[in-house]
Amino acid sequence: MNILKGLKLSLIFLLIISYGASAQHTSKTAAFKKLVELGEKEREQAKFPEALEYYLKAEALAVKEKSKTEILSVKMSIADVFASSSNFRESLGYYQQALDLAETMGAKDKLAAILNSIGLLYIGEKDPEPAMQYFEKAYEVASKYKLTEVMRSEIAVNLAHIYNSVGQYHKAQRYLAEVEQLEKTEAILQMWKTNYAESLMLEGKVAAAEKIARQLYDEDNIKCHACIADLLSRIYERQNKLDLAVFFAKKGLAHTSGLRYRIKLYDQLSGVYLRNDQYLNSLQYRDSIIILKDSLSKVAKNSFAAVSRFKLGEKDYQNAIIVTGKRHVFERKIYIISLVFGIVAIFMMYNQFKNRFLKGKRENIILENKHRIRELELEKLKNNISEKNKKIAAKALYASGRNELIEKTLELLKRTSFLSSNESVNNYTNVLKGYVKKEEEENELFEHFEKVNPGFLNALKSRHPDLSSNDIRFVSYIYMGLSMDEISGVLRITTNACRVRKNRILEKMGQSKEDSLFDYIMKIG
Asked: How far from chain centre, in Å, is Cα 512?
């Protein structure tokens, strides 16, 4: 009878433990959802550092519970926040993690969405080649697995946009035609019409393009006012109606606060004013571009600093979750062991086992804490090096922008005949020339980079001894996280020439042109 009573008590105790574990799992799921909701709220208000804090904590919970669906969802959200704060490197890293997870899960809809997002990320970096590759992969997945018509339409519109940007309007029209009859949201429909009008403009059918663009502009609910205004400005510039081109470019500026799109519209205005021989206005908008680019660099820098802080905070949060989880596991084991050994009355053996178990547990905790401390120190060192590289890159961009502004000013003074003969203007010109220190500043920046990253440069030269000094400098700018557009500004060459040099370096390294040079050198570093 005593044995049966003990067994009944054991079963009741196990049921209580099982119920407690289930309730604990439910509470963790609710905590995850709450953190995601808070992150979404901060993200909607453009408070990206605060949003990251909530998302990183949600990620730690999802990883602890090994919930692949939640991990995938929160990684995509984190990548989106990094993209919104102009942090290309961190955004791409999280998108790649999400991409790998989506492939293992077989989540085709998520796979297509992530590929599309990576394509948009490269558009922001003005790097059309990888953008095309990711959009085409996304379109292939969406078509092959018959995903929603809205998703297929969105990806096709993005493909049309990137092909228009490189002048391949026939390919743009082909993708637009494939999804013309498919279901679209109002925003996607407007972008479809905008890209179709742009392809007609590139084809030379400027009047037809103008008609479509004006119809879009006159609609009540415009989703992207700046996009349509920019297109109209370019159309009227082609028609040599420069006053209208200026009018619509300024309309676009009035309807957007995004730094990248404002840079694009400022560049459009500067070019139109230059064509109209209004050199002072052209120069003023060129100055505005330099100021906005500096602001964009500061946004990325602030985002990077926030990431460094939150990564350390994330480690502490993950450690707290691990310690709490291990404590719960440990407590359940103690209850079960004490119940079993209480029934059979082997208290001495139980005490010995308990002491050995606790001793091993303490030793493991000490070893784990030492390992975590080493990881945090290494992470801190990497963050310090990366932050120094960001400062070097920002200094290089500032020097490049200053030199570009001085050269533009000198060119305008030279082109203005009545100023070029003025002695005081010539003296001012000589003073300006003295401020242009391209090679000296570039050598100084690179020497600083060598001091900050000796391990990377030594490893690079050892693995690829046939790289020239110019190749090594180019690779160093990539390692700093500069985009093709930014490197072209520093080196004073075209973006296309930058891509050609990148492909040549990949060949020297024995890599394919389709491979990512950034990913490859990060493995070396």
From this structure: 23
| The residue count for the chain | 525
- Which residue is associated with the tokens 């070396």? 524
CA angle 369, 374, 376 (to 5 degrees): 90
Specify whether the CB–CB gap between 222 and 190 falls below 8 A.
yes
Helix (H, G, I), strand (E, B) or coil at 468: coil
The reported pTM is 0.58
Neighbours of 415 (CB within 10 A): 11
Contact call for residues 158 and 119 (beta carbons, < 8 A): yes
Confidence (pLDDT) at 367? 73
Short-list 174, 160, 293, 128, CA closest to 227: 160
Cα dist. 422→63, 240, 416, 432 in Å?
70, 33, 11, 15
Q: Which residues have CB under 8 Å from 346's CB, separation 6+?
A: none
Q: Which contiguous run of DSSP H or E holds residue 492?
A: none
User: Tokens 């961190």 sit at which residue?
Assistant: 90
Q: Which residue has the tokens 């490893």?
A: 459
Higher-pLDDT residue of 130 and 312 is: 130
- What confidence score (pLDDT) does residue 344 get? 65
DSSP readout, 469-516?
A: HHHHHHHHHHHTT--HHHHHHHHTS-HHHHHHHHHHHHHHTT--TTS-
The single-letter DSSP state of residue 516 is -
pLDDT at 406 over 60: yes
As a whole number of angstroms, the distance between CA 230 and CA 198 comes to 10
- Check if the beta carbon of residue 452 is closer than 8 Å to that of residue 388: yes
Contact 499, 484 (CB under 8 A): yes
Q: In the 8-state DSSP scheme, what is residue 156?
A: H
Which residues are CB-neighbours of 407 under 8 A, at least 6 positions away? 436
CA pair distance 159, 171, nearest whole angstrom = 9
Burial per residue of 23-60, b for 16 or more beta-carbon CB atoms within 10 angstroms, e otherwise? eeeeebeeebeebbebbeebbeeeebbbbbbbbbbbbb
Structure tokens that stand for 110 in this block:
């998520």
Q: Is the per-residue pLDDT at 235 higher than 90? A: yes
Residues 125, 129, 134, 138, CA torsion sign: positive
| Helices 68-84 and 108-124: angle between axes, nearest 10 degrees | 20
